[in-house]
Amino acid sequence: MSDNEALPPGLPRLINDRYEIESLIGRGGMADVYLATDEVLSRKVAVKVLRPDTASNPMVVNRFRREARAVAGLSHPNIVSVYDTGELPATDFHRDRLPFMVMEYVTGHTLKQVIASGDIDAAFAVHVTRGVCDALDHSHHKNVVHRDIKPANVMVTDAGHVKLMDFGIARAVDTSATMTQTAAVVGTAQYFSPEQARGEQVDFRSDIYSVGCLFYELMTQEPPFTGDSPVSVAYQHVGEIPSTLSDVKDGVDPIFDPIVSKVLSKERDDRFQTAGAFAAALEDALNGIEFHDEQSAPSTYTLPIYGTHSETETSFIAQSAPHTSQHPVFAEEEAHGSERRNKSNRGLIILLTIIALLAVGIASFLVIRSIQTEAEKRAPVAVPKVLEMTEDDARAALRDATFQVRVEHEFSDDVEQDKATRTEPEEGAMASKDSTVTLFISDGSEQRTIPKDLANQSETAARDALREAGLEVGEVSRKNSATIPTDWVIGTTPELGSKVKAGSEVDLILSTGMVTVPVVTEMSRKEAEEKLGAEDIGLEAQFDEVVTADYAEGTLFKQSPAARDDVPQGSLVKISVAKAPEPEPEPTEESSPPESESPDSEESDDSTDESSPSGEDSPPSSGNGPPDRPGPPRENG
Q: Within this chain, do residues 476 and 536 fall inside the same structural domain, yes or no?
């Protein structure tokens, strides 16, 4: 399959760590066939996998395995080879193990497609029949009877080679014992033999009859018998003679008519005794050599088992064969001997008559008993009650009643999960033996409860819990949470604990592991601390005092991270708290000299200046005094 094309549910892309599935190339009644690559031998193979809907039927599984075993023992260029077999394990998508087989990959067309495409000449028909007969000679030599020869089971490759396939209902013939049990009717109605139609045991000559039907269709584009139903076709196989090839289709050489007449004989002893003999007769006819059946006719003479001669016949015999003995003693002895022989013959005749009557009576009894047994076998039986049984117990009860079982599941509000709810046909109904009864198993109530304990679980655990509850995971969204770890479940939509329909989708809400910072400015310290430390926020607070004249002292005027920012759980939020600036110290007042100064004061000033040249102990002087008080005037020059 292409990389973007999904495989069927439960089918791995790589089977047995060796066969990589590429594409679906065929679909049969019980299995799908995929093109695959054998990674070990680097070759294309065909992988035939039993479908999950048929894997629960033991008859189908046994037929599939029987095909693998039958073909595995055959090795012939005209038979599709089987390389490997195995079983796929059970999964959530299929409860049963799925058998598979790896076969030779053949490119071409089935004989059914070839026949449908148009006219086929005699040479091609004989060539195909020869290929099928060679394959059957090999399988018959291995004591394997195919039992389902038909155009759909014969492949003609692109190179013109003939390949026989599908030994799904093949049987190994036990030649060491007498088969007395009536076999089931198997095969395809238009191609099976009269003994298959009667349900009798088949042998190699049954396959040869089916090949004759196949050759008939190759030459005329229609099978020897057709009807509205398989039953009507089966009756024709048993009791009607097919029209000759030359009568059905103009242009067919009548030289083939006696060959087809022989191979389609109702009695298997009258047919060709090997597939190779049939193919050889066809090839001779293709070369202009007429077929003559050398089977000798049975003798018409029969020895009487019992009976008496009349007196007329006795006198006639006496006259035509008189005694010739001359001595009367000999004549008398012969007369007495003849009388004793007549008495002895009468006793033997009476004994044989009694034996014959007994034989007829026993045969009649056996025939009547056989008819009664067959009627009993075909008589319908009642479907047993299986309500609220486990699946295994219900299967056993139905099989004990001679039914085949197919299991299906359904929801039920009245029957607990994994118990039987009903059957189809229903309980007490009359059905034929060996017919299939559908057993319904409860999947529980259709209403499912979303588990309440999903909260604070990982996403993987939540998915598993929903699947076990019979629900599907829908969309996944995320939401901030102060307590739930990252990617763990906060809640669901619909809500936890609510009732929903089985198989519904439930959306998961997971934690981001982040928290949205709330607004705490203009709160008091206590309020801010309580707000940040609340259970649904869970953040730490750190207060930093900042000197500012813009806010009243104690005001929370700034936070970092900012409000409405998302931060990891348990993060630290720094909050700036306003602090008033300290007041500046007021200057000390000094005495000022009088307005009129004496020369002594000037000198004193000068001397002061001189005594403090560095100016460290006196305030700096300038044209103006200090800003908060006037300084003394200074003279210029």
A: no
